[in-house]
């Protein structure tokens, strides 16, 4: 089966062209081996699920790995959470001891009011004690529940047993992943000032592994593609071009490659792959990318609609040319960074890449024309 560039779901090295993740996996593996609990917080479509799936596969020789996804979890009540969580563990985990399996199966039934987090963790700790290999828990899409008290209590349970890990056998490592860093969940759950300063995820180690694609990363992926397709492209030039416009944002890199491979090649002006994988072909792919309503842009638009102050800050950067100091203490700046819109350049906030600059600028200007009823060509009132 021919490999392809993938922008839907996580990537599989058997089916998709990918950058070499081995260096990143080695760094993350070191955190797991050291028993760290941590959060992989990156913007949407940034390769989080791919890195977690690849990590899980690489850990299975030495650990029992439980990989869950909180998009499939109900947070309507504590009982429903326990039931949904138990069902996912039963599907995801291997070699569950018979007594633990029976307990989880009972919890997974229709909630009857008896399924509590404390009872669930009693069974999970029993699993940790009886398992032949230490257990690593990986949970993706945790930001789907960050304003929910049940999730807050779940984190509190993880923290409670983490602090007792020298006396109580618990998870070797816990990895949470999502857009929002749940270490900041304190601002979304508690209303009074004292409790807002407390978060159950303050045990988390810093995650400093860079998920951005570098020029060598992109070149390696293109080399794999070139070995299979023989386009004759200048790999180093194309890798640099892709990086210059995307700043290594994984989705944008893969999307441009996919467009050149599948949409540009075969057009009258680009009759084959050899013509598509040129600067001219790249620019045609870029034109499509800037104009299409893809999932990333829809997510960005929703984010700006939900956070008007974030929109105001980005508008100031792009339209008025206002210099915005970068400070991690600014909630709006933190939101912009987590969303992938902004990066820190020598203490000053800047839009993350040239594609985002163009897309956001076009959106803002379109809104200006609509709000003020200006003509597109003169900028004067209709």
Description:
- This protein is 52% helix and 8% strand.
- α1 (22-33) packs across α2 (48-59) and α9 (215-229) packs across α10 (235-246).
- It has helices at 22-33, 48-59, 78-92, 98-107, 117-130, 149-163, 186-189, 193-196, 215-229, 235-246, 250-264, 273-276, 279-291, 295-306, 308-320, 331-338, 354-372, and strands spanning 37-41, 64-69, 135-140, 173-178, 342-345, 348-351.
- Strands 1-4-3-2 form a four-stranded parallel beta sheet. A two-stranded antiparallel ribbon has the order 5-6.
- By secondary structure, it is α/β, with parallel strands linked by helices.
- A hairpin with a 2-residue loop joins β5 and β6.
- The protein has 17 helices and six strands.
- The chain folds into three domains: 22-196, P-loop containing nucleotide triphosphate hydrolases (Rossmann fold, 3-Layer(aba) Sandwich), CATH 3.40.50.300; 215-291; 304-372.
């Amino acid at each position: 089966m021919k490999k392809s560039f993938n922008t839907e779901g996580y990537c599989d090295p058997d089916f998709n062209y990918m950058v070499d993740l081995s260096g990143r996996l080695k760094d993350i593996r070191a955190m797991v081996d050291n028993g760290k609990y941590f959060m992989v917080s990156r913007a949407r479509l940034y390769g989080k699920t791919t890195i977690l799936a690849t990590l899980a596969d690489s850990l299975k020789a030495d650990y029992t790995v439980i990989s869950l996804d909180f998009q499939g979890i109900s947070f309507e009540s504590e009982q429903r959470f326990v039931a949904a969580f138990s069902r996912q563990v039963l599907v995801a985990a291997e070699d569950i001891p018979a007594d633990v399996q029976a307990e989880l199966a009972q919890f997974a039934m229709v909630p009857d009011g008896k399924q509590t987090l404390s009872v669930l963790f009693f069974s999970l700790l029993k699993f940790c004690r009886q398992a032949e290999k230490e257990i690593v828990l990986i949970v993706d899409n945790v930001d789907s529940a960050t304003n929910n008290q049940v999730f807050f209590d779940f984190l509190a349970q993880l923290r409670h047993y983490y602090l007792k890990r020298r006396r109580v056998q618990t998870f070797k490592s816990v990895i949470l992943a999502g857009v929002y860093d749940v270490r900041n969940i304190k601002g979304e759950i508690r209303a009074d000032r004292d409790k807002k300063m407390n978060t159950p995820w303050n045990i988390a180690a810093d995650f400093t592994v860079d998920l951005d694609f570098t020029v060598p990363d992109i070149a390696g992926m293109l080399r794999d593609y070139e070995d299979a397709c023989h386009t004759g492209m200048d790999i180093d030039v194309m890798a640099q071009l892709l990086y210059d416009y995307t700043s290594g944002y994984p989705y944008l890199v893969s999307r441009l490659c996919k467009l050149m491979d599948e949409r540009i090649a075969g057009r009258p002006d680009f009759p084959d792959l050899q013509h598509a994988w040129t600067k001219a072909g790249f620019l045609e792919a870029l034109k499509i990318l800037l104009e299409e309503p893809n999932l990333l842009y829809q997510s960005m638009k929703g984010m700006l609609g939900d956070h008007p102050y974030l929109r105001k800050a980005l508008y100031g950067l792009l339209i008025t040319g206002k210099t915005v100091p970068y400070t991690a203490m600014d909630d709006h700046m933190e939101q912009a960074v987590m969303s992938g819109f902004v990066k820190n350049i020598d203490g000053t906030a800047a839009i993350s890449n040239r594609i985002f600059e163009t897309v956001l600028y076009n959106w803002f200007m379109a809104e200006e024309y609509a709000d003020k009823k200006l003509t597109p060509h003169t900028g004067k009132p209709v």
